[in-house]
Amino acid sequence: MATLPAVSTNESAGRRWLPLVALIIVVLALAGAAEFAPIVMQRRITQGLINLVAVVGLYVFVGNSGVLSFGNVAFMAIGAYVSALLTMPAAAKGVFLPDLPAFLAAAEWPVLGGALAGGASAALVALVAGFPLMRLSGISASIATFAILVVTYVVLGNWTSVTGGQNSLMGLPIYVGLWTSAGWAVAAIVIAFLHQESRSGLLLRASREDEVAAVASGVHMVLHRLMAFVVSAFLSGISGVLLAHFLGTVRVETFYLDLTFLIMAMLVIGGMRSLTGAVAGAIVITALTELMRQAEVGVTIGTTTLAAPGGLGDVLLALLMLLIILFRPDGIAGGREISWPFRSSVAAPEIQSRKPQ
Amino acid sequence: MIGQAVQVLVDAVSVGGLYALTALGIGLIFGVMRLINFAHAQLIMIAGYAVLLFFAQSAVLAVLGAVAGAVLLALVVERMAFRPLRGADPATLLIASFAVSFLIEKMMIMLVGSRPKGVDFLPMLAGQVEIAGVRLQLLQLVTILVSVVLLVATTWFLKSTRLGLEMRAAAENFRMAEVLGIRANRVIASAFAISGLLAAAVACLFVAQTGLVQPRMGLQLVIIAFVGTVIGGLGSLPGAAFGGFLVGVATILLEALLPPELRVFREAFLFVGVAVVLIFRPQGLIPARGLAGRI
User: Fold this and answer.
1) Is there a contact between A322 and B99 if contact means CB atoms under 8 Å apart?
2) Which residues 119-178 of chain A have a CB within 8 Å of chain B?
3) What is the chain A residue with the closest CA to B34?
4) Cβ separation of A150 and B284 shorter than 8 Å?
5) What is the pTM of this model?
6) Distance from CA of A112 to the nearest CA of B (A)
7) Which residue segment(s) compose the domain that A202 sits in?
8) Which candidate from A132, A158, A326 shows the least CB-CB separation from B84?
């Protein structure tokens, strides 16, 4: 196992937790600063933190396995719908979903229970779907995760008696604010970090760097991919729950290609080979899309309004993602984890550059 | 009853043909550079808009415009985005093509808006013909004919021309092919041009069938064709065409055979079926040679 990271040796054992502490401080500082911001700004930052949970969720699988997943937005959708159905007031469900099975119609779970159930359902689906998919070779597996996205979209959009079909579900308890999302963001970072430092995470990254060598050394790659996929789905499910209870409504259209693209762009631009990259991407791109949104609204000077053409933000995001892939393939973070300033940086487990096929 | 069965079968084969052409275009590019080309959807889209632009003048002009547009876009995309990434690992290429695909789609939305536009392309094919007492849609027969012709032509090109031979050599072992004097730029650019041509054909048939053009068209086709290439066996051209054909046929048969209340879930059934196939044959139905990792 040539590429096992140096961080597990004794001398750096203390420093190994630095990235975790630093990332938590960044998130808490961001939320703390948002306390003093105007309410609109606060909502944007809350949304950014929800994105962060989604990106970290995607990172757990994609970053550690090197296999792309287009299915994580489906897990977000599953989390959102499960939590919505379990926590909506029974009266509201009676109006929107008269044909709901009795146990769902009567359920009025506490929000935390609903959130955990949402994450757990997503994880369960990942376990079942991942069983055939993880056996495929990397690139086929990526394409096959598309199937998860499409199947979920079709089922949720047409299972009218349970999900309301193409209509929105409304009347969800709106409980996700700044600190709820910050709390979950911290939890997601902790879970992702523990996973990547665990034996399974290390072995998975070894297989990412050199599949043939890792498998030849006895790494059960399929198993470790599946474990990462399940953890990843849980976190994605949670982010879906947060989004649903932040907006107060769920629509199946929300959870399709555009969101997939946004979350993936965040991960790629931040750098998909480190947790720091995932966090950085979520924060930077949220800020950037907000700026572009403002620009599309425009500024009014006297009687004329200067505004960027609608849709320019999307174009720039796609362009930025392409430029990053072309010129800085490891993203903002460059495949390294964050470290204390003025010290030699913590060696990232995977500074070895990509080798051509 | 038999008439109905034949109608469904013809429908299934014609849709299967469309998916086979799409999957073949994707498979060609994957073969020569291990790139899953999401932007194939945008090749179809741009060809669709070319049809929209020219169909009022003449159908021939519209078809030529579609071919020119798709081939040109394919070559531009290859030159600007994929050539600098040649030799990068497949995951990076996959993300790059995802970004390219979104870039083109969003630019198109910015330019022409996202609303669908109606196109009355090849109205003379909308009629029906009666063959041996069974009424069949002319367009479906034309679709089958075009698919067969293009599949045969592509096969002939790959088997019997020098460029085709080079392409197959590159697909088998790119580095070895280069060492033996095959010019990579030429082979890859030709593969993109052919995939543009196939995309244009799919676009013309698809537009004639649906009568609509919009920036998102092609996406659904390409996603399902992707899955087709995976069950066919990624990296194998017969596999791609066969897998694409199979998912297309399966879609229509599911549509016809499922009870009405389950019909809306047909993609779900299709993909679950695909997953079951993959449990037993993770390499696909017609596995490619030379794809396994080597040290």
Assistant:
1) yes
2) 129, 131-133, 135-140, 142-144, 146-147, 150-151, 154-155, 158-159
3) A139
4) no
5) 0.89
6) 31
7) 15-254
8) A326
Q: Is B295 within a domain? A: no
B positions 54-83 inside 8 Å of A (CB): 81
- What's the domain count of chain B? 1
The answer to whether the Cβ–Cβ distance between B89 and A135 falls below 8 Å is no
Answer whether residue A9 is part of any domain. Answer: no
A313 domain-assigned: no
SS (H, E, C) chain A: CCCCCHHHCHHHCCHHHHHHHHHHHHHHHHHHHHHCCCHHHHHHHHHHHHHHHHHHHHHHHHHHHCCCCCCHHHHHHHHHHHHHHHHCCHHHHHHHCCCCCHHHHHCCCCHHHHHHHHHHHHHHHHHHHHHHHCCCCHHHHHHHHHHHHHHHHHHHHHCHHHHCCCCCEECCCCCCCHHHHHHHHHHHHHHHHHHHHCHHHHHHHHHHHCHHHHHHCCCCHHHHHHHHHHHHHHHHHHHHHHHHHHHCEECHHHCCHHHHHHHHHHHHHHCCCCHHHHHHHHHHHHHHHHHHHHHHHCEEECCEEECCCCCHHHHHHHHHHHHHHHHCCCCCCCCCCCCCCCCCCCCCCCCCCCCCC
Residue B172 touches partner A, C-beta closer than 8 Å = no
Nearest to A147 among B81, B94, B227 (CB): B227
Establish if B288 belongs to a structural domain. Answer: no
CB within 8 Å: A147 and B271: yes
* Residue A324 counted as domain residue: no
CATH number for the domain including B75? 1.10.3470
Tens of pLDDT along chain A (357 residues) come to 444 454 444 546 667 888 999 999 999 999 999 999 999 899 999 999 999 999 999 999 999 999 999 999 999 999 999 999 999 998 888 888 888 888 888 888 999 999 999 999 999 999 999 988 888 877 888 888 888 999 999 999 998 888 888 888 888 999 999 999 999 999 999 999 999 999 999 999 999 988 889 999 999 999 999 999 999 999 999 999 999 999 999 999 999 999 999 999 999 999 999 999 999 999 999 999 988 888 888 777 777 777 777 788 889 999 999 999 999 988 888 888 887 654 444 444 444 444 444
Query: Is A335 inside a domain boundary?
Result: no
Mutation for testing the B interface, residue in A58, A62, A125, A143 having most B CBs under 10 Å? A143
Full residue range of the structural domain in which residue B133 is found:
2-280
Which residues of chain B are within 8 Å of residue A321 when distances are taken between CB atoms?
95, 99, 102
Residue B74 falls inside a structural domain = yes
The total of structural domains in chain A comes to 1
